[in-house]
Amino acid sequence: MHFSEALPSRRGPAARLSPGATPQAHANGRNGASPSRQRVLLVDDEADVLCFVQSILEGAGYAVTGVPSLAQALRALAAERFELVLTDLYLGDTDLGHQVAEVARGQQPPTPVVVMTGRPTFDAAQGALRHRVDDIVVKPVDAEHLIATCQRVVRDTYLARRNQELESANRVLTSVLPRTIEMKDPTTSGHAARVVGYTDTLARRCGVGAEQRASLRLAALLHDIGKIGVPDSILRKPGALTADEMEVVKRHPAMGYEVLAPLAEHGDVRDWVYQHHERWDGKGYPNGLAGEDVALPGRILVLAEVYDALVEERSYKPAWPVDRIVALFRDQAGRQFDPHLAKMVADGLEGQGKRFFAAAPGQLF
Ligand SMILES: [Fe+2]
């Protein structure tokens, strides 16, 4: 927040504003706000100022509700949603503008507020901060500067809200979906989160770049999402599965690929989910891909997924000791696993034990 320059305007309302600089350009453009005119509540107790500022705002394309008092401002805020409140700080002799700001900022979602004042003192700035005002414009108002300020505050508010929405969507992807998989298949509690850590550690050691590692973490987190298409009677069956039941289970990588179809920009994530039960020797499923038919990140996921299954206790088996896992990786190098990867992991586990896979939890997303 800052005080605007107190430049008297020599131009008419919204003079020299290009159409592209108007709020409608934002409204109709990529910022995704409502295509209707953006609404501003304007509060000023001086009739000529109210009229002058209203004409500036309307000239720039805003739909303006102009009121001269606190009581009318509060009634307008209760009756209608505004994209912005622009209020004089002093209504009469009292800084009632702060009360307008307080009510606007208390709405859900909060309405941004710009305060106008002819007395830009330190106290005024402190008061504005306290009342979470977004910006202060000094009177006499410069039309161009006022419009630029309004546009910036509305845009920043929109972007902040959009960020919050994206963060929520990201939480759904990285938290809610894995929890859904684990509710479906309780034997794998915490499996996806651990596999994320293992894959990331291995990918770093193999020199996989940051962008691919980010995609790989997502694939690791969601690799078993296709299990939501496997009936509970099979997933939770206490004994061994029949051949037919096994065929149903083997569909889960393909179902995961389908579930993730909306992630069109993450084709590699979908591929690695699809391939996480393939084997180096081509005897895996669903497509029997062999060797480097599966890209390195996908081969890392194959190995990390098996490592977690071995090192953790499951309802049907105890946790394997490290030396037994090392023996399996050496035995399966070039069969189930990429031989170089399997050797690297076996050597690492032999030398460092489970610390070989130590990651930094919480920093992965
Ligand atoms: Fe799986």
Structural class comes to alpha/beta
Helix content: 40-55%
CATH architecture of the largest domain: Orthogonal Bundle
**Spatial strand arrangement across the major sheet:** 2-1-3-4-5
Rounded Rg: 30 Å
H/I helix tally: 15
Fold and architecture overview:
It is a single chain. By secondary structure, the protein is an alpha/beta fold. The chain folds into two domains: 19-163, 3-Layer(aba) Sandwich (Rossmann fold), CATH 3.40.50.2300; 185-357, Hypothetical protein af1432. Helix content is 51%, strand content 7%. The protein has 15 helices and five strands. It has helices at 23-28, 47-59, 70-79, 97-105, 122-130, 143-184, 191-205, 210-222, 232-235, 243-249, 252-259, 267-274, 296-311, 322-332, 339-352; strands spanning 39-43, 63-67, 84-88, 113-117, 135-138. A five-stranded parallel β-sheet has the order 2-1-3-4-5, with helices on both faces. Helix 4 (97-105) links the parallel strand 3 (84-88) and strand 4 (113-117). The two termini are 31 Å apart. Mean pLDDT is 85; it is low at 1-35. The chain binds fe (ii) ion. Residues 223-224, 252, 276-277 line the site of fe (ii) ion. Fe (ii) ion (FE2) binds next to loops.
Topology:
Blueprint: H1 23-28, E1 39-43, H2 47-59, E2 63-67, H3 70-79, E3 84-88, H4 97-105, E4 113-117, H5 122-130, E5 135-138, H6 143-184, H7 191-205, H8 210-222, H9 232-235, H10 243-249, H11 252-259, H12 267-274, H13 296-311, H14 322-332, H15 339-352
Parallel strand pairs: 1-2, 1-3, 3-4, 4-5
Descriptive tags:
binds fe (ii) ion, alpha/beta, Hypothetical protein af1432, 365 residues, Rossmann fold
